[in-house]
């Protein structure tokens, strides 16, 4: 008897949700929320923009399915400095863009509203609270190796791993500060809630030891600005000497060794002919 009673108590909230109007949030986290509901979205960096995705499908007060019930998702009463781009009308899933200001940190509650334009489906509007934590602590970055070697003019690869623990995709710029100018910078994207790996090649056309900084910066301002010291040992070898001719590099004595070998062979053959 007690077990049956507990089972009924467990089922009642599910039945209630099925017969109530709700909004189905699909990203960056998932949940079905009724009016005045609450959801924690995750972390976002200062100056970053993120998206809230929600389905246009819901049920009405009698529990009947409404395929295109919600027509727009928007943010209302945002804190000072925040901005939004409401989802386009009749988009499914709805995609609301919210941007945090550059000069803020801490937890913020955002009021989100699902709109039934003109109350055509007799749903009214539904609002819920979405909480985000604004912090610079949204990235873990590792760089390896920090000691690299290669021949003259031959690329050496540096491996970069970015763990983005936030809810916003972040554009990053990777560059080599302290190497000759022909080493290019590269723009990449660190996807939200993902671990993303990149390979960044560097090269130099003259032998020597080149200390430089591998720098990683964010396009959203000062969210990421990190430098990783790298030592690049550019080696001399026969292949690199020959390939370096086309780059205008001064010939190393090693490049003359094949000429000496041919001279020796000719003198040997003529002397024994």
Summarize the structure.
By secondary structure, the chain is mainly beta. 15% of the residues lie in helices and 45% in strands.
Map the helices and strands.
Blueprint: H1 2-18, E1 23-27, E2 31-33, E3 37-44, E4 49-54, E5 58-59, E6 65-66, E7 72-76, E8 83-85, E9 94-99, E10 106-115, E11 125-134, E12 139-144, E13 147-151, E14 156-164, E15 170-177, E16 186-190, E17 194-202, E18 208-218, E19 225-235, H2 238-245, H3 257-271
Parallel strand pairs: 3-11, 13-19
Antiparallel strand pairs: 1-2, 1-4, 4-9, 5-6, 7-10, 8-9, 10-11, 12-14, 14-17, 15-16, 15-18, 18-19
Tell me what the structure shows.
The protein is mainly beta and 273 residues long. 15% of the residues lie in helices and 45% in strands. The protein has three helices and 19 strands. The chain has helices at residues 2-18, 238-245, 257-271; strands at 23-27, 31-33, 37-44, 49-54, 58-59, 65-66, 72-76, 83-85, 94-99, 106-115, 125-134, 139-144, 147-151, 156-164, 170-177, 186-190, 194-202, 208-218, 225-235. Strand 1 and strand 2 form a beta hairpin. The longest helix has 17 residues, at 2-18.
């Amino acid at each position: 008897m007690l077990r049956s009673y507990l089972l009924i108590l467990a089922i009642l909230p599910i039945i209630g949700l099925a017969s109530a109007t709700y909004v189905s949030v699909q990203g960056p986290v998932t949940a079905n929320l009724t009016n005045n509901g609450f959801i924690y979205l995750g972390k976002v960096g200062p100056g970053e923009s993120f998206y809230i995705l929600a389905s246009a499908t819901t049920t009405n007060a009698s529990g009947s399915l409404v395929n295109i019930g919600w027509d727009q998702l928007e943010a209302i009463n945002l804190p000072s400095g925040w901005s939004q781009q409401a989802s386009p009308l009749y988009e499914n899933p709805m995609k609301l863009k919210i941007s945090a200001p550059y000069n803020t940190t801490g937890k913020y509650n955002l009021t989100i509203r699902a709109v039934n334009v003109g109350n055509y489906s007799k749903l009214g509007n539904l609002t819920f609270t979405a909480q985000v934590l604004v912090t610079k602590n949204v990235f873990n970055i590792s760089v390896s190796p920090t000691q690299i070697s290669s021949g003259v003019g031959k690329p050496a690869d540096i491996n970069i791993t970015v763990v983005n623990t936030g809810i916003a995709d972040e554009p990053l710029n990777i560059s080599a500060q302290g190497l000759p100018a022909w080493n290019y910078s590269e723009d990449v994207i660190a996807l939200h809630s993902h671990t993303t790996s990149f390979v960044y090649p560097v090269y130099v056309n003259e032998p020597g030891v080149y200390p430089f900084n591998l720098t990683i910066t964010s396009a959203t301002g000062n969210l990421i600005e990190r430098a990783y010291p790298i030592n690049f040992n550019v080696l001399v070898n026969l292949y690199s000497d020959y390939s370096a001719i086309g780059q205008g590099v001064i010939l190393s004595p090693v490049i003359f060794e094949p000429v000496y070998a041919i001279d020796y062979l000719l003198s040997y053959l003529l002397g024994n002919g």
